[in-house]
Amino acid sequence: MEETVRGRFAPSPSGRMHLGNVFTALLAWLSVRASGGTMVLRMEDLDPDRCRAEYAEVLADDLRWLGLDWDEGYQKGGPHGPYLQSERTFYYKECFEHLEAEGLVYPCFCTRAERLAASAPHRSDGRNIYTGRCRSLSSAQRAQRAGERDPAWRVVVPDEQVSFTDGHMGRYEENLLTDCGDFIVRRSDGVYAYQLAVAADDGAMKISQVVRGMDLLDSTPRQIYLYRLLGLPVPAFFHVPLLVAPDGRRLSKRDRDLDMEALRANSSPEEVIGTLAFLAGQTDRPEPVQARELIPHFRWDRVPQKDIKTETDIFDYCTD
Q1: Which terminal residue of the chain has fewer beta carbons within 10 Å of its beta carbon, N or C?
Q2: How far is CA 233 from CA 36, 55, 154, 169, 227, in A?
Q3: Around Cβ 117, how many Cβ atoms within 10 Å?
């Protein structure tokens, strides 16, 4: 008997959702609902400097307004909680200690300037590749530096290709050592890093399908590596195109690009969903529709693979 799909939407409550966030939420929701699966809402509020409880409450209210419900998670509870990452530090600590006991992590004392100096040339996307400067420090050197600054902790990666077939974008692979390098799993302030937390949570919550933006595609090999180290099953991944403004700039919370406050003030839920359904290739024109009406007709092969430039008249449809 085939297991029920367990999908999730896992936003960061660092501000009001914008149209691009809602686009991803809609596709994640439709993919789960079309398969008769279970939808989980998790709040990724790891960063205490950016995330706020009130943002999480507003985000959940916005999802309900849009008609994007969930079966388990934030404000609903369930067997795999808590569903706020800020309340799951105990679990990340267990995972970290497992890696530490296996000798798979080491302290990194580099300042930002030193990290840049100790990095290989940038990848084409501008990401620095850490060359393992602190990996070979002796016990005495580590003890000396620990008296000078609190370390971040990095996981040791092998010279190994990690590949997977994305359900929407196809095959993707990276060499962990040369394309990524040892990456941080706990920050110097003690906050556990996104890579560790998301892999640990998806495993603990039995998530079998991850739908998220294309900007996270290149983090997937790192997470697959962590799933393996922690003995967790690897979910199926579907990375979706990003919505970009007419000038090609990515939509962002910081710039308040068509955020939910503006959308709710100037349009109906059906208009927002209709616009996004059209951009996702699920309808022929941007006309009002309820989210649940899209479920019987949802198809991944209709979703574009390239970033979607939103034309001026599409924005006008939502906000006029």
Answers
A1: N
A2: 21, 31, 22, 21, 6
A3: 11
What DSSP designation does 130 have?
A: E
pLDDT value for 312: 43
Tens digit of pLDDT for each residue in 43-99? 999 988 889 999 999 999 999 999 999 999 999 999 999 999 999 999 999 999 999
Contact between 261 and 59 under an 8 Å Cβ cutoff? The reply is no
Residues 6+ apart with CB under 8 A from 76: 41, 70
SS3 255: coil
Quote the pTM value.
0.91
Query: Which of these, 8, 3, 6, 2, lies nearest to 27 by C-alpha position?
Result: 8
Q: Tokens 């962590």 correspond to what residue?
A: 226
Distance in angstroms (rounded) separating the CA atoms of residues 312 and 247 = 10
Q: What token pair was written down for 211?
A: 């739908």
